[in-house]
Amino acid sequence: MLRSNLATRPFYNERLVSLVIALVAVATVGLTIFNASRLAVLLRDRSGVQAHIRADHDEAARIASHAAALRKGIDRSTLARLTASAHEANDLIEQRTFSWSTLFARLEKTLPLDVRLVAVSPEVGQNVLRVSMSVAARELDDVATFIDNLTETGAFYDVQPTEQRLEDDNTYTALVVASYLPGRTDPAAPPAAPAAPARGTTNAAPAAPAARPARDIPNTGGRK
Question: Which of 153, 103, 111, 90 is closest to 130 using CA atoms?
């Protein structure tokens, strides 16, 4: 009987091995080409970014140099005058844009019962808004009360009666001038007048009026 050992002659599939090696080689070459192309793109983008950065640095240096030259050429005294003029212009603009409704609401709260507002005229001065108010009253004490009420609001200061006269109907007309702060908030409203007693009730004796400090109001014409 003929015996042989087949293990001593192993079988190899050379074609399959060659195919696998070829596929691996192709994949390696493809990946190498892809990585090389991506690296080239990234290097090109990096060069562009670096160019932009250099351009930005150059522009910043140019602007800083120009600003330094401008600062050296500025006249400090002229700049101070321009700054003061700008602040003054802003103040005047704010004063010119005050609210008429707010002004009349404040005047309505401060007017005593026997004082009537005849005319109002605002005037812008040196950073000051002056309001001239022409009023008619029964007594000069009513004008003094009106002036006190204006001062208590906190929105009016330097309140002064500039002229007053007695009319033929025994009433007084006065011109009251005050400096006005449009943005100032009233600290408190003037006290309300006491309510009249209801009909059918017994009227109590009126209380004596509180003493009011004397106020000098110039008499510019008419009789007193």
Answer: 103
